[in-house]
Hints:
Layout: H1 3-9, H2 15-19, E1 29-31, E2 37-39, H3 41-46, E3 54-60, H4 70-83, E4 88-92, H5 97-101, E5 109-110, E6 113-116, H6 118-122, H7 128-148, E7 164-166, E8 176-178, E9 189-191, E10 193-195, H8 200-207, H9 211-220, E11 222-225, E12 231-233, H10 240-247, E13 254-258, E14 263-266, H11 281-290, E15 293-297, H12 302-317, E16 323-328, H13 330-336, H14 349-368, E17 373-378, H15 385-399, E18 403-406, H16 408-411, H17 417-429, H18 444-455, E19 460-463, H19 465-479, E20 484-487, E21 507-516, E22 521-526, E23 545-546, E24 552-553
Amino acid sequence: MSDIEIARAAEMKRIKEVAGKLEIPEDAILEYGPYKGKVSYDYLKSVGNRPDGKMILVTAINPTPAGEGKTTTTVGLGDALNRIGKKAAICLREPSLGPCFGVKGGAAGGGYAQVLPMEDINLHFTGDFHAITSAHNLLAALIDNHIHWGNELGFDTRRIAWRRVLDMNDRALRQTTIAQGGVANGFTREDGFDITVASEIMAIFCLATDLNDLAERIGKIIVGYTRKKEPITAGQLEAPGPLSVLLRDAMMPNIVQTLEHNPAFIHGGPFANIAHGCNSVMATKAGLKLADYTVTEAGFGADLGAEKFFNIKCRMAGLTPSASVVVATVRALKMHGGVAKDDLGSENVAAVKAGLENLARHVANVQTFGVPVVVAINKFIKDTDAELQAVKDYCASELGVDAVVCSHWADGSAGTEELANKVVDLVESGRDSFTPLYSDDASLWNKIETIATRIYGADGISAEKKVKDRIQELQDQGFGHFPVCMAKTQSSFSTDPNAKGAPTGFTVPVREVRVSAGAGFIVVITGEIMTMPGLPRVPAANSIHLNAKGQVEGLF
Length: 556
């Protein structure tokens, strides 16, 4: 059966019953229908002094069209930890509509390792993304309205830093001209759209610890500059109040269930290739306070999601990961070893071995942070014993880590029971000595260079003079202590998406830097990465429709 058929055939339990596995009282759950809900602020505050459980990060090799299954593995591992008697919760990001209707599809797991209700989660869910989009665009409207009614703050309309957002892939909106049609419509200027998951409001939403922190962070957003290049903030526009109102309910973590009726928090959803790629701090802390083990993921490969999870989220929220799982598939390793997608069905042990250099660099990168690692081999039907054994042998002999074959897509938690036991062994060994990659005191240029050389394997970084000057300007303005959030292709360690494996001998070109003063980091845009994606020639939207019963078909 397809993922959506498996999800539709499942018998769900009421969300209050599922929440009871974490001993959350029924009156602390705000229901959005019978099978999804939000956990109230008051209850989360009441458990705030409890000790934290153990946190496991699931990351992966560089993604390929062959698929890796990071979210599926996260769900399978969470289910398996519960299966072996551990009190475990899962923390995931909310899917964006852009990929759902584009090429990547949804993000609710797959096969018998899914979160439910799958269709709701992948579409409008509880409306969080709509609230974030509305809050972001309200701020944009306040800026142009302020300029229209006299521009008391002195905005230089050539230096407006706040673009608009939409939760959809739409390349036609990357660069726009607004306020055309005469004086009644404001002052004509160039503008543009990013996708909602790249919004600083999304980043703030996911990093804020409570509503007060949310409002404070919103007030620090730099929305533009005067002619003297002095920053103008959202606080000066009195934006924190109305934006917080729009985000109030959305800020409560969402709780749903897996196919095996285990609790999963799904909250926030920044992309990892253009944003920081982690679910909300509020949801993660809820899991840590309520469960003994919290399994979470960070987007795309470890060069993006895991690096940002460690350097940004853990640093800001004071979190300490106990272990990490690096997900790989034989199919993806063969692609990194030079095999075309159409030829992946044939056994090719040599290609698997060639592609293992990609896995090796990701494992080494995670270990650089002092986090112990186990490799999860997400098994596909056509994988051969020889191919799987090649991965296991390499991990044992060359990397010194265990590699476990997992069949959670087909077998649910039974297929990840061995992985769960390995994770428990890692956690209980106490081998974690987590340390971020760079210090707060390092210069912005040094932070960018450190990530490029130590995580990506680059020889160095490059930038035009105007970009270097901007980096120095941000340093001089007091933002030098911020971590950096790299915007880079997810398909390669380099900025060339076609450079598979573990490329060397390259330089990372820094094209632009943006300050996210509210989120508390500097966005560094490299290569040709776009903050508003486009749809492919044949988008997934072409196959999505309602059947005669009014059910969704084609969503994956």
